[in-house]
Amino acid sequence: MSFSSPKVSRASSRPPVLTNPVRYPEPASAPARSKRAWFLLLLTLFLPGSAQVVAGNKRLGRLALRCTFLAWAVVIAAVVLGLFRRETLLNLFTNPISSLVIVVVLAAAALGWAVMFLNTLKIIKPSLLAPGMRGLVGAALVVLMVLTSGSLGYGAFLVNSGRNAITNIFQTGPDMKPVDGRYNFLVMGGDAGADRSGRRPDSIIVVSVDAKSGQAATISIPRNLQNAPFSPDSPLWDVYPEGYNCGDNCIINFLYTDVTNKHPDLYPNAPDPGAAAMMDAAGGVLGLSIQGYVLVDMSGFSKLIDALGGVTVKAGGWVPISGDDVNGTGQHLPPTGWIAPGVQKLDGYHALWYARSRQWVLEYNRSQRQQCIQAAMLAQMDPATVLTKFNSIADAGAKVIESDLPAGQLGSFVSLALKSKNNELARLTIGPPDFPKDFPTYPDFDQVHQRVQALLNPAPKPADTKPAEQKAPPKDAAPEAPAPAAPAAPAPAAPAPAPEAPATNPNITEEYLQQLAINGDEVALSGLLSNNGVCSPG
Known about the structure:
Layout: H1 30-46, H2 50-55, H3 58-84, H4 86-94, H5 96-124, H6 131-169, E1 182-191, E2 200-210, E3 216-220, H7 255-262, H8 273-286, E4 292-297, H9 298-308, E5 311-315, E6 319-321, E7 337-339, E8 342-346, H10 348-356, H11 363-380, H12 383-388, H13 390-400, E9 401-403, H14 410-420, E10 426-429, H15 445-456, H16 510-519, H17 522-528, E11 535-537
Parallel strand pairs: 1-4, 3-10
Antiparallel strand pairs: 1-2, 2-3, 4-9, 5-8, 5-11, 6-7
Helix pairs in contact: 1-5, 1-6, 3-4, 4-5, 4-14, 5-6, 6-13, 7-8, 9-10, 9-13, 10-11
């Protein structure tokens, strides 16, 4: 039997673990504790969970680090999608289901980051810091939590606000397909005032967008257009086989109320039969297939403008804010105010009147101003404005807008809208100045269809070509007979110059116009206000 002697342990040359100032700050000096506090705060700011791994609960830290790395992977993927597949990224934010997931993830990330900062404060042990340093570290912690968790929480709030607005405004359903490479939407503005038998769209505009390039065009249809035709596959073909053609009682904007009250059964699956009928009428007038509509309640339109912070336009002429129509005959009391020419920043109330006023002028003046307001709003909807005022815009939009556009496809439409801002907006009005004054009463729809196709499919510009250099003939070659001269091609017609605002007469004042209105001098007012349709975004 043998016995072995016990092993003798030797003293380690490594210092005791308690002297590690990061994990055990008690023996450390006051300056070292302060540096440690700032170090741990920065770790939590840039890499949540790392402070716990080096100085606190390692298990909690590892879990937080996994979440942090996953979050960075998601951010990188979102950046890649934004660069190469922007529509997919936008669809994630506009789809009701995926946007709900984003809201939950952002809220969880905000809460988790806040927990990490609070746990980091516990690890710092403020009682070990100098009295002055405690206040600085505490204030820094609050600022960092606001910048991180606060920003994520606000982002969740914005996404949720947008999700609620999308759910309230748009419909669920299959994606729309472009027709002939374009999306065509009917945009209507109207209200159901106390003096009306029902809602009637006073603003009727078709927006046509190229599905690839985003090149957009707006086509205004006057509210008083008559004889609107319908295609044989329209439910209204059996009711109005000759078109909506009963004279002044069948101008196009009466169709909405007519179908809503008398023929809603013709569109059993439509959320708004009147709007569906207006889409059929607009498609017949323009020779286009209208795929969807957006209806803006003009009585609440001012709220949307106010939510944007106003809209800036360059007005060409004076626009009256009409007085009440006390007898319901269209004879208004003198205006309650005037919108002056020049660059104007209009609040909701004045923007609404600028878009709707038609007293003493032709219908097309108002159509021009409505197109101008739309262009100005589009120009002003930059990312900074939308981000800072998003909740107000979404809330106002949910109250004044309804549409049959599919919510799941909004990302694609938003992407097209962003592309369209890089292209010049083409415009056409089915009336003056693009057609004669009486054209809306006696329209020639074949001519309208030709003009619409020319607008949407312009002829390509001739390429600049240089004549090929002719080689000198050999010296011994016989001279060739000259070729018969080809007939000279007609010179291309010069494009019509864009309309410009006429010079403003400084002698025309608001007081002078108001006195003319009080005197009932309609002839003078019609002449002085004839240029108030001239407008451009400010």
